[in-house]
């Protein structure tokens, strides 16, 4: 057959609509969705045929069954949720690809109440007049950080852009060369600064920047000194950074504000819980930094947000910047952020109730006990697999504490008749996808980021795998 004949023998949309499988599909899925997918699949098939070599067409026949199955699959996946819950077996706590921080169970009612009902988002309940959406979190952020004022936007990248655009447009901002970081997804500090209209002046060298580097560069056009917390990498060895204290003093002497992009934004002293010290927001504020920005969904453990704290004078200026409107956070985020911040009021409870802190501070003994539990379930029901418990390390992730290695326990799985990559792929393809990593020809599931409710899902997923 030639191409023309083959193409003209493709079934019509109406013909496919009369197929038994499609008729029963339309009972479950809106007809309009099915028709749309019939058209798409027919077009794909047509394109496929058009691309084929003439010689390959000799024995070619239209495979109607294949076509119908494609349409059924496409239509089913079309109505399923594409964005869905997965199980994080990677042990990377702040996994950017998996949504970073988990919100606490404690706050779900508050968030849902605001989401599904009307709220006083921008209404002052005392006066009955228009209120500010930021008012809901300003007092608690001030209380937790010691800052004079606060503002919240969609994420920390937006916060940096807003801060620089409001404080240093068409002026110079001095930053150490060692702090010109890329934050991932090709998001680079110098590029953001350029967008803001501020002129970047880098000083020092990659490994060393001295106070006099800043001092010599300060001039009439200098609008701010910027410190970027290099939270996602460390330069080790022969290095020197200017102490924040000295930078603040230099700023004060010259009447130039100091801005700090802290990135991770931790509010608790992690050292108390056996983790590496990470500068806290309140320390920067106490040292006299004029404006500090940080993320809501990194070490803070809340929703995606960018939090700006510092001098009221500057925050007022930012509030008048049209970018604030463009970057404004929505009510879901606001509800989740306020509720998460409230969890910080009870110091003894926050490491139990903020999932990010809970996972980061869980002891190896506790993880070990949970590994035993998961092991027992898997071992009993999946005799074909070789399963063991191993020592390993988890990571903080999200560009925070890059050198931190958290001792953990992992479940290592393999199967004699199934490649480790197939095993990883099958778990990832399960109805509740299980994200694992491969190490030494085994699939590794790190218990640190796996919750108790996940155990039976993992068990079912393994049961589900058919080894031919
Ligand atoms: C992560 C990070 C950002 C970006 O924060 P998002 O909330 O992801 O937008 C900016 N600066 C630093 C130093 C960071 O670590």
Automatic annotation (TrEMBL):
Ranges for domain L-seryl-tRNA selenium transferase N-terminal come to: 7-46
User: What keywords would UniProt list here?
Assistant: Cytoplasm, Protein biosynthesis, Pyridoxal phosphate, Selenium, Transferase
- Superkingdom of origin organism: Bacteria
Residues with the modification N6-(pyridoxal phosphate)lysine, per the entry, are 298
> Which family, according to the similarity comment?
Belongs to the SelA family.
Q: Which organism is it from?
A: Anaerovirgula multivorans
Q: Which residues cross the membrane?
A: none
Annotated pathway, please?
Aminoacyl-tRNA biosynthesis; selenocysteinyl-tRNA(Sec) biosynthesis; selenocysteinyl-tRNA(Sec) from L-seryl-tRNA(Sec) (bacterial route): step 1/1
Keyword Nucleotide-binding present in the record's keywords: the answer is no
Which compartments is it annotated to reside in? Answer: Cytoplasm
Q: Which reaction does it catalyse?
A: L-seryl-tRNA(Sec) + selenophosphate + H(+) = L-selenocysteinyl-tRNA(Sec) + phosphate
What Pfam family is a match, any one? SelA
Tell me, in a sentence or two, what this protein's role is.
Converts seryl-tRNA(Sec) to selenocysteinyl-tRNA(Sec) required for selenoprotein biosynthesis.
In the UniProt record, which is one GO cellular component term? cytoplasm
Q: Name one GO biological process term.
A: conversion of seryl-tRNAsec to selenocys-tRNAsec
A single GO molecular function, which one? L-seryl-tRNA(Sec) selenium transferase activity
Q: What is this protein called?
A: L-seryl-tRNA(Sec) selenium transferase
Q: Which gene encodes it?
A: selA
> What does the organism's lineage look like at the top?
Bacteria, Bacillati, Bacillota, Clostridia, Peptostreptococcales
Q: Which cofactor does it need?
A: pyridoxal 5'-phosphate
